[in-house]
Amino acid sequence: MPSTLDLTDVPYGLLVGELQRRLECATKPERRVVLLGPPGCGKGTQSPALKRDFCLCHLATGDMLRAAVGAGTPNGLRAKAAMESGALVTDDIVIGIIEEATKKPECRNGFILDGFPRNVTQAQALDQMLASKGVAIDKVLNFEVPDSLLVERVTGRLVHPASGRSYHEKFAPPKVSMTDDVTGEPLIRRKDDNADTLKARLSTFHSQTAPVIDYYKKQGALVNIKADNPFDKVKTAIFGALNK
């Protein structure tokens, strides 16, 4: 006989709030959103609000890959074998992992895809996978930030490893230094969040990912977001784009 979840100790206000949230989510339209932009552009900072207010799941490819490997899914096992052999994880494996993730209940209203596609070939493969299900990408938000402003953003970034929540020691600091606001767990600095690594990543972004912007622009799905504005102004622009 299946076990039941004991909610005795859960505060009444939290239960009512969660019920209200689920009722509101049931009325939300489906949306499938891709976030594009260079490292440090603010995608990770804005994603929690998008996830919450539009009732979408947040699919960060790195997190999904690690989760699939840890869960031992068919595509996770393929990815693990590739990584252990020193090979790259192929696009079809990543597409498979994305497809697996979109079947989860929390993705019933759609998703925010962050970190993929990185090139036009991947964008085409993603479109084909979604088309086989009778759906498509609705909006592609292109976070525009001048390269000159990204160094300070990236070198000051702090991350909660378990959830992917990101902070910035200057622009969006946690309430308690080096501590996640939600869980109270320690924050970390990623090893590659330094100026030298950023320059290499920006070079890769401009050469490989920038053509993806043109690909989605031709489809009429692209919306440019001036992401060097203050957080609330960027959020307003994003919400305006998704509510059209």
Automatic annotation (TrEMBL):
Enzyme class: transferase
Reactions accelerated catalytically: AMP + ATP = 2 ADP
Keyword Kinase attributed: yes
Pfam family of the protein (one): ADK
EC identifiers of the protein: 2.7.4.3
Keywords: Kinase, Nucleotide-binding, Transferase
Keyword Nucleotide-binding on entry: yes
Domain of life according to the entry: Eukaryota
Classification via InterPro entries: Adenyl_kin_sub, Adenylat/UMP-CMP_kin, Adenylat_kinase_CS, Adenylate_kinase_lid-dom, P-loop_NTPase
GO molecular function annotation: AMP kinase activity; ATP binding
SUPFAM superfamilies in alphabetical order: P-loop containing nucleoside triphosphate hydrolases (SSF52540)
Residue ranges that the Swiss-Prot or TrEMBL entry lists as coiled coil: none
Adenylate kinase active site lid domain boundaries: 157-192
Signal peptide: none
Listed PANTHER family: NUCLEOTIDE KINASE (PTHR23359)
Known role: Catalyzes the reversible transfer of the terminal phosphate group between ATP and AMP. Plays an important role in cellular energy homeostasis and in adenine nucleotide metabolism.
Family statement: Belongs to the adenylate kinase family.
Listed name of the protein: adenylate kinase
Species in which this protein is naturally found: Pycnococcus provasolii
